[in-house]
Amino acid sequence: MQPSPRAPQAVTPDSPHPALSSLMTQSWLDLAFLHWAADPADVAPLLPAGTVPDTLDGVTYVGLVAFRMHRVGLFRLPGLPYLGTFPETNVRLYSRDSEGRRGVVFRSLDASRLIPVAVARTMVRLPYVWSRMEVRRDADTLTYTSRRRWPGPRGAHSRIVLRTGERIEHPSALEHFLTARWGMHTTFFGRRTYLANTHPRWPLHRARLIACDESLVTAAGLPEPVGEPVSVLYSPGVPVRFGRPARPGGIPAP
Question: Which domain of life is it from (predicted)?
Fold first, then answer.
């Protein structure tokens, strides 16, 4: 007899597991968060078995998140300055499992370093793709560009231009829901796993979207976004630690 699903964990702006041991460290810098509302029925078939769309007031979301990955490192070793530092743009969905853990599911992760892409695809089974990318800042305006190289679809691209604004002192329930994500759900050699992370509370800023031309969302198997994003945010970034993956029920994988 299958156990009953647990109630969803609360959405908390601070990490629920600050003492997480470090399997991997990195920093996420100069993040642009763009989100569109989505029908949970459109998202559900794209999630790993054993997870369902996480919703707020009956709505789930598709995220397009562009940023600079900085100094990825293993355990507590210093992060790599070249191979571990690169632009990244991901398409992500919002998920919840039977243990009540909230997380994200990555449909694609474009990155500009081929070796990390190959390692992540082979060793961790994450859908990283190799792209030509750039993050450029001009005063308070940031431009994120990406054009896919391998494995495709070739030509999938994004260009995001936003202007940063004032610090958000009291983020809304939606802003916490979209950013306070303390783990990801993925499938590793046929098994659903949950990879927890921890970092300081997000410093969030208002942002004005100046331009968005992208095909990454549809390339990830999702319907084309309709209209302007319902949420546009910027963050200067946070240092991040990832712990060991956990199987269903919270059992760490060997």
Answer: Bacteria
